[in-house]
């Protein structure tokens, strides 16, 4: 029983460390991108994540599915 509890506690600590590392890495990348986008300026086509996703979605909807005409 005691070994099982220690093992579970260790797994939980490792999981928290992994989640924290992923969060910190994502935050660092986001800050790096923001700094890069800021230095490029808005005129160079820098877009937010949501703006990029809207463009991808619009492009996907504009494509004809499997060679058929889009239904409107």
TrEMBL record:
State the organism of origin: Tichodroma muraria
What's this protein's name?
HOOK2 protein
Domain Hook C-terminal residues, every copy: 2-62
Q: Which gene is this protein's source?
A: Hook2
Quote the InterPro entries the UniProt record gives: Hook_C
A Gene Ontology biological process term: cytoplasmic microtubule organization
Molecular function via GO: microtubule binding
Q: Report the superkingdom from the record.
A: Eukaryota
């Amino acid at each position: 029983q005691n070994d099982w509890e220690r093992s579970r506690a260790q797994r939980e600590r490792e999981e928290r460390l992994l989640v924290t590392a992923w969060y910190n890495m994502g935050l660092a990348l986001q800050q790096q991108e923001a700094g890069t986008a800021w230095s490029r300026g808005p005129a160079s086509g820098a877009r937010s994540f949501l703006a990029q996703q809207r463009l991808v979605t619009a492009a996907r909807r504009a494509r004809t599915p499997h060679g058929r005409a889009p239904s409107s």
